[in-house]
Amino acid sequence: MISLENKVLKALKTNKLNPEINWYNYFICVTELVWSRNKHDGYKIDVFTDNSKREHLASVKI
Length: 62
Known about the structure:
16% helix, single chain, alpha+beta, three-stranded antiparallel β-sheet, 1 helix
């Protein structure tokens, strides 16, 4: 079984991750990470069960 983190990374590589729609019936929250020094800027992608954000399932930082 493919882990949820791997599904997110695969969707990013194939340009199919769209936070505007229900992706695999999950709620996606994308946060831009901007560091003042010593780290690379990137994104944090949080995956929740649904729009109510009751259960946090995974976080991926890229």
